[in-house]
DNA sequence: AGCCTGACTCAAA
DNA sequence: CTTTGAGCCAGGC
């Protein structure tokens, strides 16, 4: 287990997302002082911590990572919906209402 | 070591 | 409005 500060920061911030809220890769990336949102995506893709609700992290369009979800796209969407997240479309969450603003 | 791809985003044409 | 290019950087082969 090697220490990747960047990865850990991503996990920590992601875990801080309250139920019924979502955030974007860009927000996390900027919060960590980088412009590379892709690394955030990679961090979550590596996601060694099962406690990290990666399904609460979406892209700027509010779209979930259906292609790389755990059991399938429906699982991820279903979880968000169960947490009270509103969907404007099948795979798109309502960012205007549920976007978690990092501080 | 080098090339290609990617759970991204923004800006310009 | 859509399409393209560029920025950033790590992981896989």
What report would you give on this structure?
The termini are far apart. With 103 residues, the protein is mainly alpha-helical. A two-stranded parallel sheet has the order 1-2. The chain has one domain: Winged helix-like DNA-binding domain superfamily/Winged helix DNA-binding domain (Arc Repressor Mutant, subunit A). α1 crosses α3. The chain contains five helices and two strands. The chain binds a DNA duplex (13 and 13 nucleotides) through α2, α3 and β2.
Set out the fold topology:
Elements lengths: L4 H11 L7 E2 H7 L5 H10 L10 E2 L14 H10 L12 H4 L5
Parallel strand pairs: 1-2
Helix pairs in contact: 1-3, 2-3
The structure holds a DNA duplex (13 and 13 nucleotides).
Q: Which segments are poorly predicted (pLDDT under 50) over 5 or more consecutive residues?
A: none
CATH superfamily: Winged helix-like DNA-binding domain superfamily/Winged helix DNA-binding domain
Count of the domains: 1
**Sheet with most strands:** 2 strands, parallel
């Amino acid at each position: 287990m090697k220490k990747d500060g960047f990865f850990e920061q991503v996990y920590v911030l992601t875990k801080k997302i309250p139920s019924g809220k979502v955030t974007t890769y860009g927000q996390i990336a900027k919060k960590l002082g980088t412009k590379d949102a892709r690394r955030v995506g990679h961090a979550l893709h590596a996601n060694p911590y099962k406690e990290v609700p990666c399904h609460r992290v979406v892209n700027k369009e509010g779209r979930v990572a259906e292609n790389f979800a755990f059991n399938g796209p429906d699982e991820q969407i279903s979880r968000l919906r169960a947490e009270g997240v509103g969907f404007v479309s099948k795979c798109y969450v309502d960012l205007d209402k549920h976007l978690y603003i990092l501080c």
